[in-house]
Specification:
Chain lengths: 308, 308
């Protein structure tokens, strides 16, 4: 990507995860929102990462991104250890219990965009401190065609003011059901969307895990189920993988129309289905376009209904 | 329906409900699985009810079914009071807390099919004691083209043996997620379907409330979201209304193919969306074909995706 115009820029975390699920356990595997996001998005559009890792991030880890259109100029390596997360999932796989969080080098993370990245056409602000998300927006030398943002209850409850500031700047908000409700104060998602629209984002994407995704746009709504799988081994990264497929595909389109966003939702859902079938990024790393196409075709024909 | 050949026969409960939801409260309103089911199904196919009510079931209650193609020859009125249920819903509306259940005349209910009903082409066994469901099956003088059954955890846990007997006789099982998991011993719904198929039913319909419906058939799977509503006033009867729309429409088709079942799922979902917008059967009672068609068109175009 050196010197090439940056299209999709993603700011987030690159981390090491220790995971335990009913299917097994893994230690120090590649994780973090920017990792899942970029590996997924890169199947549709070139993507540049802005994140930070420590000295323990070796050539074998950089290697995961090599050979894919993922720019690493913004991936700073600094003294110290990388962000580390340790979590465990119970039988229902819906939510991880966090056992340990070591921010390490991530604690001092101040995203610094490479010059070329400041003109990116599309911007994804992964789930980090909204103060930093706002700093990223301010570093852009021109307004991206769209800005998407992910956040979590920790920031909604603890940094509401900063979050409300950055929400004013964005087009697409991606959150889960609990977060949409907590941010809007509305349990009903249609009403939650109306409240959230008034805060800035004109598009709301509600990630509902095994129940799929709900998309709210001024043009209309769309809901897609999750892709039905027989085996889910590790749900970690499903949301970021969805965001990568969804936004990676949107970054190939001229405008944010409902038809394009429906297709993007299908692709994001399909990408996430690959992620959860294996631990960490294992299946994302070896995924081919042919498999993505095959599953997207199968999924879209599965959910297709005739006109009434 | 007197003397006409019976097409769809529904066995279940007709009851009075006392309800409280965040939107308000109602006392002694018409409820019960057979009420919601028949009012919904009758928009697609004539339906005969087999159920029991007490002396407190007055002309104004019979009146609700009049003017619709709902046969009441099998609705026995006996000395005593009708089945009465009292429940309350919290903010999340997902599950009612039962405050009181008075079986009353329902305690002695032994379904007795009118002669004409014993040749019904299609049979829906609402959520009652599986021993009684099996008795109904045995009263049929010819095997219906399909038999559908609804049940609940109370029977799955308490009357497993009888339930397993009647499951061998049926084609379509309608349950919620918890029930599908409890019956199969599998959390994953794809695996749950495989186990349930081995018990008898070749088709599994999983009602997931606000998350929609999942349909598992030998021909393939289908998942539909719930219809997005701004106001949900009373979720009571949503499942039975869905079953009524789903099976009422299926009873107009020649065979149980996946395409037809997809359409049936859309119609069932749309019917349920009308029910939950008002208390009890209020909206079902005044529903027109035009409104059903309009919402079905809107819903199917909402969830439609282009081919990949």
């Amino acid at each position: 990507m050196n010197g090439a115009p940056v299209s999709l820029l993603a700011v987030g975390s690159v981390a090491f995860d220790d995971l335990e699920t009913p299917s097994g356990r893994r230690e120090k595997i590649l994780g973090g929102s920017a990792s899942y996001f970029s590996l997924s998005a890169s199947h549709f559009r070139s993507v540049d990462i802005v994140a930070v890792v420590g000295e323990d991030f070796g050539p074998e880890h950089f290697q995961v991104f090599a050979g894919r259109p993922i720019g690493l100029d913004g991936l700073a390596q600094v003294p110290g250890k990388s962000f580390q997360w340790k979590g465990i999932y119970g039988q229902d796989l819906n939510e991880a219990k966090t056992l340990e969080t070591h921010l390490n080098v991530f604690a001092g993370f101040r995203p610094e965009l490479p010059i070329a990245s400041r003109e990116a056409s599309f911007l994804f602000l992964g789930n980090i401190d909204p103060v930093l998300q706002l700093e990223v927006v301010k570093q852009m030398t021109r307004r991206p065609r769209w800005i998407a943002l992910d956040t979590m209850n920790f920031w909604i409850e603890g940094s509401k003011e900063a979050l409300l500031c950055v929400l004013k700047e964005i087009d697409i908000l991606l959150v889960n059901e609990t977060e949409a409700r907590s941010l809007s104060g509305e349990r009903n998602l249609v009403k939650a969307y109306q409240k959230i629209q008034a805060l800035g984002p004109r598009i709301l994407v509600v990630k509902r895990g095994e129940h799929g995704v709900s998309l709210f746009t001024p043009e209309g709504y769309f809901m897609a189920p999750a892709y039905p799988l027989e085996e889910v081994h590790d749900p970690t990264g499903a949301g970021d993988t969805f965001a990568g497929g969804f936004l990676g595909y949107l970054a190939t389109l001229e405008s944010l129309d409902l038809e394009g966003m429906k297709q993007a939702t299908i692709l994001g859902t399909v990408m996430a289905s690959f992620t959860v079938e294996a631990f960490g990024t294992a299946q994302l790393e070896t995924l081919t376009s042919a498999r993505i196409q095959e599953r997207s075709r199968h999924f879209s024909s599965m959910i297709r209904v005739s006109a009434f």
